[in-house]
Amino acid sequence: MARPHIHSEADLDLALTALGEADPRFAALLAKTGRPPLRRREDGFAALAASIVAQQLSTASADAIWGRLAAAFDPFEPAAILRARPARLARTGLSRPKIRALKAIARAVTRGDLALAGLAGLAAEEAHAALTSIHGIGPWTADIYLLSCLGHGDAWPAGDLALQEAARVAFALPARPTAKEMLALAEAWRPWRAVAARILWTYYRAARIPSAQPGPKAKRKQTNKNNAAARRRPVRR
């Protein structure tokens, strides 16, 4: 079964029309924000690796590290990353967890455990599951790769804080929705949830909504999770 994708402005037009029919609130949002940008990036191993590099870093820091990494391994291919010693990768600015993640992804691609070329033909949930089954690829990274690099029409990064906050303000919700609540909220927008995300992100910027931050409870959970992970780490890296 063919999956809806957003590869062109015509595809975006089709999706915007369908969303407006499914939920008239999007017509009101588009009237305020204007048309969302297409913003397609290249796909493949290098693009996925760049997403890993960018996690939890400022744009400037991520760009600097990626620039050094891409220059050190040109062409940037799984085999080269597998052969590289961790110390060489670390000199580009990569953290140890990201080095492990890049090697795990390179290994999965080389072995055929992760068929990047076939992800575009899968349903959003299946493609998401295939990506997150690999060490180092979290839910947010998987969704952003599907949305921005593959143009998957139904990718929905429900855990994205900016997206949650945009939904809260745009739809006058009593509180910022959780990832689970975001999934329920977007069910009626299938198979164009990725375009709904683009509209809400555009609204987030246009409305100048204050930067979304995790609440105290979420921060405590993340801190406890990080501490537990640190305790489980082996001494040898």
Please write out the topology:
Elements: H1 9-22, H2 25-33, H3 45-54, H4 59-72, H5 78-83, H6 86-90, H7 96-111, H8 124-132, H9 139-149, H10 161-170, H11 179-185, H12 193-206, H13 216-232
Give a written overview of the molecule.
With 237 residues, the protein is an all-alpha fold. The chain has two domains: 9-40 and 153-206, Endonuclease Iii, domain 2 (Orthogonal Bundle), CATH 1.10.1670.40; 45-149, Endonuclease III, domain 1 (Orthogonal Bundle), CATH 1.10.340.30. Helix content is 60%, strand content 0%. It has helices at 9-22, 25-33, 45-54, 59-72, 78-83, 86-90, 96-111, 124-132, 139-149, 161-170, 179-185, 193-206, 216-232. Helix 2 packs across helix 12 and helix 10 packs across helix 12 (193-206). The longest helix is centred in the last third of the chain and has 17 residues, at 216-232. The chain starts with 8 loop residues before the first helix and ends in a 5-residue tail after the last helix. Mean pLDDT is 87; it is low at 216-237.
